[in-house]
Design brief:
Structural class: alpha/beta
Helix content: 55-70%
Shape: elongated
Number of helices: 18
Length: 333
């Protein structure tokens, strides 16, 4: 038998007042620094923090999820990854799972969401991973999937850079010196290039026709990458569809393997890329949260598993305000 006391949770090792102070300090500093302030061992503080977060989040259900984002993050050396699910409307993390494959994201949908919640999801954004796109299309029948535009542009830049790398390997020292700095020029948009850089790229027509074909759109006389960027500014889906088809045809005429591979990728995600026209949804919120996660990871330095890292994620940018669940009259510092 245990007597019920108002200033501590059942079976707790510390009071509500200390729980609140631990949460408040761990939101703004490392656990080691917080432990030094509170005059306790870092392992003891980490254990107490885990007990608080586990108690508060027990029984918690995800609510109001309409716009979903999915991404993965490395949390430890040795290629250990975690799948992060975001609420893009509220800029919160709603779930953290170990791994990054289809089984991991399936576990989120099966264990965390009811059938009604899955049907209420209207929008979803992710990269071009088949694990994410396949799971979202399978579990969320009413959701419109929007492929993140930054991952699409990244794939195009990698295709252009693959051509440059192939040419670089076949050149001697003098030839490599002639195309030095080309990697960054190929990725630049027209408005960011100087006249000198534009003249240098145009000179590739005679000095290196293979790289010039990857950069220049021959049928239209325009830069291939700059032409692709126009797709994000259309307002009518039909016009965007026709434009993207013409662009793919022009890219295939280059006869370059890396660009052919990119066109195949675009074809596989054709409708989901054009969904951006209907709603310009990106994973920018998710990438911003990922930046915060890197800061959180530094605060949780020294952990050997995902659990301590997930604790600080939920404490800092989770969908549930952990300190707010401590009785208000016992939150003083």
């Amino acid at each position: 038998m245990q007597e019920k006391i108002p200033w501590a949770a059942p079976y707790a090792r510390i009071t509500y007042r200390l729980e609140f102070r631990i949460c408040a300090l761990c939101q703004i500093m490392t656990q080691k620094a917080a432990a030094a302030i509170l005059k306790m061992a870092p392992s003891t503080l980490s254990n107490c923090l885990h007990r608080v977060i586990t108690r508060v989040r027990t029984g918690h259900t995800i609510r109001g999820l309409v716009t979903l984002g999915a991404d993965e993050i490395a949390y430890c050396k040795g290629r250990k990854y975690a799948t992060i699910i975001y609420d893009l409307d509220r800029s919160h993390v709603v779930w953290v799972g170990q791994g990054k494959g289809r089984e991991t994201i399936d576990r989120f949908f099966n264990e965390q969401l009811s059938d009604g919640q899955k049907q209420r999801i209207r929008w979803a954004s992710c990269d071009m991973s088949r694990a994410y796109t396949g799971a979202i299309q399978h579990h969320c029948p009413n959701a419109t999937l929007v492929i993140d535009r930054f991952h699409v542009v990244k794939a195009l830049n990698e295709a252009l850079d693959a051509v440059r790398k192939d040419e670089w390997r076949g050149l001697d020292k003098r030839g490599r010196q002639a195309i030095k700095g080309l990697r960054w020029m190929l990725g630049m948009q027209a408005r960011n290039r100087s006249k000198k850089q534009s003249r240098f790229l145009n000179a590739l027509r005679t000095s290196n026709r293979r790289i010039h074909r990857a950069w220049h759109c021959r049928p239209h006389g325009r830069v291939l990458k700059d032409e692709f960027e126009r797709i994000w500014h259309f307002t009518y889906p039909g016009a965007a569809r026709q434009f993207l088809k013409r662009w793919m045809t022009a890219a295939l005429r280059s006869r370059l393997p890396s660009l052919k591979t990119f066109v195949t990728t675009v074809r596989n995600h054709f409708d989901n890329i054009l969904s951006f026209i209907e709603r310009p949804l990106t994973n920018a919120v998710g990438e911003g949260i990922n930046r915060l996660l890197k800061i959180v990871k530094n605060r949780a330095s020294g952990f050997r598993g995902l659990e301590p890292f997930a604790d600080l994620i939920f404490l800092t940018i989770g969908d549930l305000d952990i300190p707010a669940h401590i009785p208000s009259d016992l939150r003083t510092l």
